[in-house]
Design goal:
Elements lengths: L1 H22 L9 H26 L5 H22 L7 H18 L9
Length: about 120
Amino acid sequence: MLDRVLPILMLVGSNIFMTFAWYGHLKHKTAPLLITILASWGIAFFEYSLQVPANRMGSAVYSVVQLKTIQEVITLVIFAGFSAWFLGQPLKWNHYAAFALIVGASFLMFYEPGAKPAG
């Protein structure tokens, strides 16, 4: 069970760092661009330190397509919270509806027609 859960937890951590690296600077738009880039690179180091091993471990139990799908769903969830909490830009109903459709579509990555349920 840990082999399935640990990569997902690491991807959650990776996405938190990634979101701050990519969007955190938008709260500090007056900071010099070079400093912003360097700070983002520094944060991205920690993102990659979690993301690379998460994908390597995860590829033992998930297909690469499934891993990418997990990553994208995690990214949406993390970004939704970050947008409201850190940037003060809460999402609207249509954003949530679009996210729900993406999550629904993601289900298809894990659906195998004709497969018997485990257990």
